Amino acid sequence: MPAREPDCSCGRGPSVAQGKWYGVRSYLHLFYEDCTGASPDWDGDGSSPHGAWAPLIWKVSLSTGTLFLLMGAAALAAGSLVPPKLEGIGEEEFVVLDVQAVRYNHALGTCRLVGMALCAAAGMLGAV
């Protein structure tokens, strides 16, 4: 009576000696090398069903999202932690409007807005 061979047989490698199979190495060797095309999800030409672009898109979106999150956190911190300047200088009847202070305070508000937008974009990229 002939000996039964494994489903994904392999006659090469250091773990095969005179038709005897032994050890975990032979099992892993068979599973990863010989049985890779046995799954119905694979095309048969060796390509993944998700395509070669999936890992690249995942890595790019993760790195871009991390960069956006760091830049957004820095912009939020700069806009929130830096104190605003006084816009009006003077007494009750005579008040001088400092135009540079108005621009400075507007820039701080813009910095906070850009920081929130970058953090929201980072969240969307992280969700992808």
Overview of the structural elements:
By secondary structure, the protein is mainly alpha-helical. Helix content is 55%, strand content 8%. β3 and β4 form a beta hairpin. The model has no long low-confidence stretch (mean pLDDT 76).
Question: Would you kindly provide a brief summary of this structure?
Answer:
The protein contains 3 helices and 4 strands; from the N terminus they run ββααββα. The chain is mostly helical and 128 residues long.
Question: Could you list some keywords that capture this structure?
Answer:
two-stranded antiparallel sheet, mainly alpha, 3 helices, rod-shaped, 128 residues
Main β sheet profile:
2 strands, antiparallel
The DSSP helix count reads 3
Structural class: mainly alpha
Give the proportion of residues in helices: 40-55%
Distance between the termini: 56 Å
Strand content: 5-15%
Question: Quick one: how many beta strands?
Answer: 4
Spans of at least 5 consecutive residues whose pLDDT stays below 50 are: none
Task: Give the SSE layout.
Layout: E1 16-17, E2 20-21, H1 23-34, H2 53-81, E3 88-90, E4 95-97, H3 99-127
Antiparallel strand pairs: 1-2, 3-4
Helix pairs in contact: 2-3
